[in-house]
Structure formats: C-alpha cells, structure tokens
Fold:
Amino acid sequence: MKNSGKGQKKMTFWADETGEFGVKQIAVTVAVIVIIGMIVTVVRTNLGTWVGEIWSLFMKQIQDLIS
Structure:
C-alpha cells in the first residue's frame, strides 16, 4: 500500500512540530504571564487614586484660571 501524498504531508508537519517548546521557552512564557499579572494588579489597585489625583489637578488648574 502506498501512502497518499496528503497523508504523508500531515505526518511530516506533526513530526516537525513535536518538541518545539523547551523548558526555557515555557519558563519565559510563565514569567511574562506573571509580570503582566503583577502590572494589572498594580494598575487596578491604584487606578482610583490616580484618577482622583488627576481630577484634583484639573480642578485646581481650572480654579487658577478662573481666579
């Protein structure tokens, strides 16, 4: 029996893709996810404070322009 060309191409594709991810690549991916999570946490916890400070700054600037 002969293998069809299409089936052989699929097998070659999967054979080429196996073992592509190493320990270092997985470690880097996990580190990036952790860093992004930390950034999101910091922004989320401080967002109210930052908005309040900016609002106060704008209101002060408006008051200075009016008076």
